[in-house]
Amino acid sequence: MNETIRYSVDAEGVALLVLDVPGRPMNLLTPDLLTALEACVDRVARDAAVRGAVVTSAKAGFVAGADLKELVNVFDARLGREELSRYARSFSKAFRRLETCGKPFVAAINGTALGGGLELCLACHHRVALDDPKAKLGLPEVRLGLLPGAGGTQRLPRLIGIEKALPLMVEGTHFSPSRALELGVVDELAADAAELKAKCRHWILAGGEGLQPWDRKGYELPGGAGASRPALAQTFMVGTALVARKTGRNYPAPVAILSCVYEGGLLPMDAALELEGQYFMELLTSRVARNMVRTLFIDKSAADKLVRRPKGIEKRPVVQLGVLGAGNMGAGIAHVAALAGIDVVLLDTSLEAAQQGRARSRGLLDAQVHRGRLRSEVADAVLERIRPTATWADLADCELVIEAVFEDSAVKADVTRRAEAVLGPGAIFASNTSTLPISGLAEASSRPQRFIGMHFFSPVERMPLVEVIAGARTGDEALAQALDFVQQIGKTPIVVNDNRGFYTSRVFGAYVKEGLAMLAEGVAPALIENAAQMAGLPVGPLAVSDELGIDLQYRILEETRRGLGSAYRQHPADEVIRRFHDGLQRHGKRAGAGFYEYPDGGRKRLWPGLAAEFPRAAEQPAVEAVQERLLYIQSLETARCMEEGVLTDPADADLGSILGWGFPAWSGGTLSLIDTTGTTRFLAACEALATLHGERFRPPEWLKDRDRIR
Ligand code: NAD
Q: Is position 202 annotated as part of the catalytic site?
């Protein structure tokens, strides 16, 4: 038999199927696995001596999901409809054959079972899971623009009822085995591997039947199907409206899941699976799924494996990290490093200030303990690793120092010199500046080849990206060490070259400024904000501007103008920033007044004074036109970053935009959006926008030269 599944039968007629996809750290649903599974099911069905079968895995987890690389090949091969349909239904068909072959199958879930892996378990007649709190179960397909297409949308509601099943699939939630037991997704838990096997065998030997509840006569979906009960009708109506509101109709998958569950629940199982296959096919042929799988899975996995790391440099994990400045960012960086097991020296101008930074970590850890996500001894151990100080000599043993002091070149130069005076010769110095060019900051360094930019995002504990910036003189060792550290703390790196604002701040800045420019033109502020959110951007440009602070934007504007001199190009947003900073003195959220007002204890609302400051134009643009401007300006600025060599890999652009500032995932990222729109169409739209709104929309030559982006 194929070695992808090891097959054996014991003396009492219980077959054991051990999934072990060769050459992989975890099992994925590959075409080979499918073929092997089909053969095993046939064997179990045909062999009269076999009473039933236990399905388990030889790896640390059960099955991590579908092989998404295979899926991208499917997207790229542009298969004909028939071929694609065969592919889309292949797992579903095999699983249906398993559950209807007449013999009982039990899933021995020895660890993580996600996506197709959990769908295989759902097709089994009984499920026992190892009670490991670290194991993850779930149907997360929606996060990649897909739906559970191997029977999940039909079996899960039939097993636990529509009300409980829907949120798990629409949100793609992960849950632990013990939660799975509460939900009814698994039938039993086992304390260890021996008990797992024993419980599975026992269920078969005690007469467990190879017949699913939904294949029995008179079966009814728990809690009803379709809109049979008012509460259920409500679930679908509210669910659809909520999903539409949350996703701005940019994501077809959650809506497809709702439809699939609603319609499928009214059909017998075979017809329901056929219906699921049709919806799955539709998503498979959509650009959204392709974009999401490529950027959020393929590109992200490659970045996490450090594709951009220079070759031939030995890996040196950071044992002790120095963090300069225990403010918002410094405290966050210290926290994530300590969580990853790294000792941290956290330095500020006074011991009290450094202790305050450490106290922030205490707060974050306590919240985790409170929610039951962390044991208090572990939290204490994490906190122990952070050593607050105001003494520079304490940095002596650090292999890496990250500065997060005020955004001021003179202050940064001073801390660079002080740190280097005590650091060992091999140590790397990184700056977390968000705007100041790294090559300029490196002038304060006595060893600029060991000086690098590491741009974290706020709040550090939640944001997954680190933008690593190579200055003009940054050496390969510094780059390798910085990337290793990003991997050590479990974040995703992109690598960019030096430039004002690097990649993320520069392109994000273009987004915010476009919003302000529209305000100056007389576009209704609510239209600007809503259009942005409907396009899938997390926060409208005016709200973002308030969050950042008008004072900060003013400082950046003045510094950029000074830095560029006669090369500086005016932007219509400059005037808005100046007016808010100097005249109106509304400096943003922290000041309690900006484009929004922030009533005590109430929700923020757009400042009514905007109407007098920026009289509304008689004719307002369509929502789509506002969205186009806000999105396209970001793609254009990204294309300029490619042209100028700030970015060297389109994957960094796409990944950085989605993980860094929440550019809509449906687009696949800033560059992928151009591809999704079609380069020719994109170019024509930008030329038209340039004529209407200014040269910033004129497409760069780099883009014109390309037929397609990737
Ligand atoms: P912050 O004002 O909260 O913290 C700065 C800290 O540095 C303060 O605790 C201050 O006491 C300390 N400090 C100042 N001078 C010092 C010195 N000479 N020696 C030791 N400590 C000193 O600022 P922040 O928001 O944490 O930003 C810090 C850096 O991170 C800035 O360069 C900023 O541009 C960058 N950054 C900020 C964000 C953000 O969203 N806040 C995001 C990315 C990057």
A: no
